[in-house]
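Give me the fold.
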Amino acid sequence: MKLIFSTSVSLLFFIVGYSFAQKKNTINPGRELLKTIDYSLDQSVKQYKYLKSITPKDRFPKTYEGEGKGSVTSTARNWTSGFYPGTLVYLYEYTKDDMLLHEVEDKLKFLESQKDNKGTHDLGFMMYTSFGNAYRVTKKEAYKDVLVQSAKSLCSRYNPKVGSIQSWDRIKSLTGPEYWDFPVIIDNMMNLELLFFASKVTGDQNFKKIAIKHAETAMKNHMRPDYSSYHVVNYNPETGAVESRQTYQGFAHNSTWARGQGWGIYGFTMAYRETLDKRFLKTAQGMADFFLNHKNLPEDKIPYWDFNAGQPGFPSSWNYDASKYPVIPRDASAGALVASALIELSTYSDNQKGKKYLKAAETMIKSLSSPAYTAPTRENGGFILKHSVGNLTKEREVDVPLAYADYYYVEAMLRYRNLSK
């Protein structure tokens, strides 16, 4: 009986979605920004209906490379596959338009097979953004079962000696001649929400224990003293010792990759929500303060792809040709991600910090909602935002739209709207 009550409470806690647990501050969202958000959401619905019309039934939108190259889609196995159906769920919640939900259900039929994929750490990205949101809205037991199985597959990559979920299988270093035996990337913080969910709906505390241990290990080894973050930490899988701290998608091993910093802010905020462990809150706040206080953060709060690219003290990179990018690219995906995280973080912080975080998120949403970043309807390959960066060091997806930029942008707008509810 005790377990049934606990599980019921946890399910209720999950169902409220982005209404935020442990809400500490009463926050009144700005009326003018709410008008901007409603207009932007209306335009986003139109854009995603167009995107639906040009996307093959068994494919998932990923990016758009411009005139002459066109749209790029993926199979369900790609780490970005969950963002398109996840964005559609959010837009359905805004509109109650059944056509959007039907598209979600069609895509989930192709995505379900990934619940048994033990070859990736990205199951949280793939399954929780899609099936997690769909379950929250529809309450379909079949979706919950998919999520629990996905969590089991993700746990198969956990090494108790290291205290982390392995991101990539053993590979030759992506930045040098050595091998990465057990690489863990800061992105992996985002996948822990799937484990917290599975623990709540099953009562199995092992899911939660693994998530907490992974977060503790990341907090210990990915953070620098100033709360900037390393992208990749490579471990010895036999002893758990750190073998190296590097980057793959950032400018240099000692620089701060903007989206990686965003993954950390969001991930540790979520970890605090699920555990009430003040260490995670302190880490999220430290990472957020580093991001917002950085002298190289533009006035519109949409960061360059790496905080240190082109800055004094960082004259060169392991794999970056500055001559190809005379204007350092911005990353709207990092801005959208951090805006969403800051809205939640503001509700857990004291009034001074909370106001700072919310004000920054408001600036980010205003910036992203402007013509500088938002594409006209039926342009930009059907994606909402322009000017994101996937992996500049490999010259992939530079200054293009990205599915996950749209997802976190729509999430941020809905989170902001929900502050007054």
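The two ends are 32 Å apart (CA to CA).
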